[in-house]
Amino acid sequence: MSDKKQTAVEWFNQQLVDRQCGNGDSRSWDEILDQAKEMEKEQEQLARNDSCNQGWLECSQYIMKYTKQETMKNKSVFKVGDKVFDIRYGCGVISELHEGLEFPISVHFDDDNYDFYTYDGRITNTSIPFLSFTEYKLEGFSQERPKELPKKGQICWGRNEFPSEWHIGYFFEKRGDKYLINSHPNPSLWHSEVNEITTENPYKDE
Fold this sequence. Notes:
Layout: H1 8-20, H2 29-49, H3 54-74, E1 83-86, E2 90-97, E3 105-109, E4 114-117, E5 155-159, E6 167-175, E7 178-182, E8 192-194, E9 196-198
Antiparallel strand pairs: 1-2, 2-3, 3-4, 5-6, 5-9, 6-7, 7-8
Helix pairs in contact: 1-2
């Protein structure tokens, strides 16, 4: 298919696919994006001037609208600078995020590999998500941003399985899937082991 028959969005996404395959335009993404924007303006003007192309214009506008809707819906999952993991490459960092693309997320991995992903971390629109905030094997995949642990000695509340009561103490450390807290701010040999902790008073609204 020639460039003239492609929408600006389709042409831009094709550049991304070509780049992933090691081919395509060698210019920066900003330069390619600027060209795509110019193409979009020219194509819209041609379509307005030619009633035969009205259907094409409506289709192009629908694609742009759908892409922007997907962008707004998923843009909060990942952001530039996030440390991520893909089981195929290992650990990496999100280096670029280009809104409006089919594969807007660019990740630079520790072994200097690069790959591109959808907003929810897929390598194709039909694949399972590969991009995770945590390392995983056959289980443990998560896109839920991990909660920060309290500082050692910080006041917190802990409990075991609901409906057990919360009790207050001083955070010591996390050991496996358990949290250790004690009744004295200074470290001691005895710690209470709980399944759940919070730094917010769980009884403040009662």
